[in-house]
Specification:
The structure holds two protein chains of two kinds. Chain A has nine helices and seven strands. By secondary structure, chain A is α+β, with helices and mostly antiparallel strands. In chain A, strand 1 and strand 2 form a beta hairpin. Chain B is built from nine helices and two strands. In chain B, helix 2 runs parallel beside helix 9 and helix 4 packs antiparallel against helix 6. The chains are: A alpha+beta, B mainly alpha. The structure holds FE2/S2 (inorganic) cluster. FE2/S2 (inorganic) cluster (FES) binds next to loops of chain A.
Chain lengths: 250, 234
């Protein structure tokens, strides 16, 4: 039997977008190290429902770190203290019995708060709509080697393609910049032959949309890379800038 | 304005354009502070070395004038964009975190990176005062005259010596320079990243190089005022 833990949570509660919000203390007894952090919130919610209180609203879907639905600040760090781990995959073994943990929503003006820990990240969808796609039908998976892609480019594109669009980069960035997300999408497509055709138009349109959504500028703090559940490198931001300059000058 | 020029200016004002401009002007200013620091060090050679150096610079005439105007433009652009990035960031967060901390490696978020706006603004105010007191300060008309190779020139060595004998200058100047060191610590690497001149592998050299640059430039600037201040007692 796993050891029982008691965890003290301090969670941001806000009934709606315009309602006042505040941090509320909860204690969850009976947690164990095998639980994910979201399962801990599930346990808390069961207790709250039992007591006739409003459960804590938070987003999640796959709970296996691949969909990008989940995301909260755990103890001041987006997705919590474990590197390259979405909060749905963050296990309670990362904490100790008796720990006090502050849980807050991802904050950015471009991510308006919906309720409690749920924020509206459709700004990301609009950045993708601005150009994060390939307009032509590229058919099914091509035969191996029919379309030459160097190993380096394939590897790098794959690294950027792992972005799940969770928004942790924005939440953790001191400037609330969406550069890592936008750059990962731009770089992923620009590196591959199918995506390179529209690379110029794409980079200009996506950067413009990113700016219009009200995200901040990048100051190269690299905090985004540190909290990214997929560990996406800021090298993609450098590539985005290169692509942008190329698009404007050439 | 043709649509191509319009697009070009829109691109300069975009988040990427702003970073590229900040990086370019930043690197230009790095070059300037290095030359300035080396120039200051000629003071330590004693004799006429410092005045000679100043005189050589002045003898560039129109070229120097062009350089100065360019430098002023770089400063202005760098500062304006820096302030606009700061204002935009304040708007972009919307609300504060009750608890926020850096996730640690590979994050390069440091005291230096978080306080670029503070160090930058102090440097800007300092620059204005420095120009008033030094560049546009007392000249030959006020009796600051030195004779070099039979020619009468402004005695900058005397002005510098007098200023740094006062504790306000002797310690205020190094204090500002320490902030310059912090600014360079994040700024040097950041400029290279903004200009896409880095890669993850290069960064492992270039990022520490920024710290080294901050220390070397800082030390180079600080040594002269402290030397002048303390040597008046010996
Ligand atoms: S719930 Fe899908 S990534 Fe966390």
């Amino acid at each position: 039997m796993a050891e029982q833990m008691t965890i003290h949570l301090r969670i941001w509660r806000q009934a709606g977008p315009d309602a006042p919000g505040r941090l509320v203390d909860y204690t969850v007894a009976g947690a164990n190290e095998h639980m994910s952090f979201l399962e801990l919130l599930d346990v808390l919610n069961e207790q709250l429902v039992h007591r006739g209180e409003e459960p804590v609203a938070f987003d999640s879907d796959c709970r296996e770190g691949i969909c990008g639905s989940c995301g909260v600040l755990v103890g001041g760090i987006a997705h919590g203290p474990q590197r390259r781990t979405a909060v749905c995959q963050l296990h309670m073994r990362s904490f100790k019995d008796g720990d006090r943990i502050v849980v807050e929503p991802f904050r950015a003006r471009a991510f308006p708060l919906v309720k409690d820990l749920v924020v509206d990240r459709s700004a990301f969808d609009r950045i993708i709509s601005a150009g994060g796609f390939i307009s032509t039908t590229t058919g099914g998976a091509p035969d191996a080697n029919a379309l030459p892609v160097s190993k380096d480019a394939a590897d790098e594109a794959m690294d950027y393609a792992t972005c799940i669009g969770c928004g942790a980069c924005v939440a953790a960035c001191p400037n609330a910049s969406a550069s890592l997300f936008t750059a990962a999408k731009i770089s992923h497509l620009a590196l591959l032959p199918q995506g390179s055709v529209e690379a110029s138009r794409r980079v200009v349109a996506m950067v413009r949309q990113m700016s219009e959504e009200g995200f901040g500028d990048c100051s190269n703090h690299t905090e985004c890379e540190a909290v990214c559940p997929k560990g996406i490198s800021i090298a993609c931001i450098a590539r985005m800038r290169r692509e942008y300059v190329k698009a404007v000058l050439c | 304005m043709s649509s191509r020029t319009k697009h070009f200016f829109q691109a300069l004002a975009s988040p990427v354009g702003r970073k590229v401009l900040t990086g370019l002007t930043g690197l230009g200013l790095v070059l300037f502070v290095i030359v300035h620091m080396l120039g200051n060090l000629t003071y330590l050679q004693g004799g006429d070395a410092y005045n000679l150096y100043a005189h050589k610079l002045a003898s560039y005439g129109v070229l120097l004038y062009i350089l100065e105007v360019g430098l002023a433009a770089f400063f202005a652009l760098h500062a304006c964009i820096g302030i606009s990035i700061y204002l935009r960031k304040r708007r972009a967060r919307g609300g504060h975190y009750a608890r926020y901390k850096t996730a640690g490696k590979p994050s390069l978020q440091t005291f230096a990176s978080r306080t670029m706006i503070v160090s930058g603004i102090v440097l800007l105010v300092f620059l204005v005062l420095h120009l008033i007191h030094f560049k546009f300060g007392p000249g030959m008309a006020e009796g600051y005259v030195a004779t070099i190779e039979g020619e009468q020139i402004r005695d900058l060595r005397r002005l510098m010596t007098e200023q740094f004998r006062s504790p306000l200058y002797a310690f205020g100047y190094p204090a500002v320079i320490i902030l310059l060191g912090f600014h360079l610590r994040h700024g040097f690497w950041s400029a290279l990243q903004s200009l896409s001149l880095t890669s993850p592998r290069l960064s492992s050299i270039l990022y520490p190089a920024g710290a080294l640059l901050g220390i070397v430039v800082g030390a180079g600037f600080i040594i002269v005022p402290l030397w002048i201040y303390f040597s008046q007692f010996s």
